[in-house]
Amino acid sequence: MTDTASIDLSFDEFDEQVNPAPELTDFDQVVDRAISRRGFLGRGIAVGATAFVMGSTALTPIRAFAASRLAFDAVPANSDDTITVPNGYSWHIVVKWGDPLWSNAPDFDQATRGNGASQETSYGDNIVGMALFAIGNQNVLVNNNEYTNRKIIYGNRESGLPENADDVRKGKAAHGVSVTEIAEKDGKWGVVIDSPFNRRITADTPMDITGPARGHDMLKTAADPDGAQSLGTWNNCGNGRTPWGTYLACEENFNGYYSSSDENFQPTDHMKRYGVSNKDWGYAWATTDERFDISKHPNESNRNGYVVEIDPADPNSTPKKRTALGRFKHENAELVIANNGKVVVYMGDDERGEFLYRFVSDGVYTQGSDNSDLLENGRLYVAKFDDEMRGQWLELSPETSGMASHGDVCVMTRQAASKVGATTMDRPEWVSAHPSKAEVYCCLTNNKNRGKKPNTGGDDTSANGPNPRVGNNYGRSCVGGRMAVTIPRTASTGTCSCWPATRPSTTMHTAVRTTSRRTTCSIRRTGWASIPPACCGSRPTGTTATRTTSPAWATTRCWSPTRRRARSSASWSARTNAKSPASPGARTARPCSSASSTRAKRATATGPTAAIPCRGPQSLRSPATTAA
Q1: If you count Cβ atoms within 10 Å of the first and of the last residue's Cβ in the chain, which end, N or C, has fewer?
Q2: How far apart are CA 116 and CA 2, in angstroms?
């Protein structure tokens, strides 16, 4: 069943509507907590102050960082309907949703918004995670196409929804991942049409299932009785990258695409734990592809919710779903190499009251060797904190979780984390590792249910050490909302430092939402990268509401009035007088990848540095901005 009433709901709102969490928790538990909000803030500031004086590689205060580390003037918050960049910079469009990637593909048709065939050969919708790869002498841009704005992609339909099989085909093709070679010509960057690297990975692309869950009974379907190969990836939010040159796409809100043709079908508790229900989010995929009908194929949804590894250098390669990294609503995958050579990946489950994870490979990374299977097997951990800000990594295994196999853990990761007593977090989104210290940072973006009701698994969400605020609704107060959490990078135990990542703002757009339909592009702090001196410090991302923002973070907001129906795009922002990296004698740029997808490194060669791309919007075809 397609839920037409949910067309304007966010994924969070949709999940709560179709699968409400249990009733309220006991508020006495909140009152009895050792750390009050006031006490937490006092200590948080003290911890932050200590961190600020730990040396040249330590964290520095926001204002000092902006003044001493950024090679440009901060951009104040504004509601201008454009992309705002610092003085001395310019921007231009690199690629837009619907732009053809091959010469045999038609140009975008604004009246029809394209069809299924044209979308399969064109750039996808809603840019989120991205990374730029240097492959030989070519620059290959890889980015997630998280979802489609139904009222935009189906703007040629009065209902604003798919109305026939080709509409559904178009929607499926607009999801996934776009791989495009880009090059500079006449001072501007654009797509190289017919490049052998160009590729669209969609909801219908074959995927290899790897790791402990490969062949698991819960992954076997009528079309794939071996449980070894699935079709497609969609709703990929953040990303990661590996030192062996592959891209990691992270499947997030995969549940909103499943529905049931049988209104009396009762989703299992396991389905409910992941938000899978009888109603989809308006995409109607089950009307033409019955694998999305949970009453007919109840195991199909178990084949989503993973990190997908893609080789951008080989357009004929099959993407791999890495089940060893766990199944949940992945935000990003921050990969580092430990001192012992093990690959360590940090991940957040982006839903209110969910958990923070770590994967450690069994194998060891060796530069120049075949490292392609390092993410196939390893140990999975989940974070647990106490009110004294001490934390530990709890291994998720059959022994600790009581599950029958490691495959069970990798399919029912949320349940395993609940069983070992992991700490529920306020939407752990982007995770980033410090480039030179054994620390990891995680942004907790919001949780209006904190202290009010448990998560979908019934786990307690009373206020706790790293999540001290009851009803933690992002931006509701000057100190409310997102928290930054640092934890030891490789140790099993250690201390956790927390502090507010949002400071009181001098600019509050309280009425913009009533005059602007959606955000085209917004830099807000849902995550961060390890920032070198030449890079911008916030992850650009779309948002449907205007929030309190500190101007010290060089925040840019770009709004589009309701009347506008422009196409989303990827844009390149460069210093006005900077030389092109492709020009003779020019200085080579090293990009900082999307948010915290990899540890950003300062360009070893001199020259402009590509910084952080911008996430897709809510109602327009989103710009992704890269600042050089």
Answers
A1: N
A2: 20
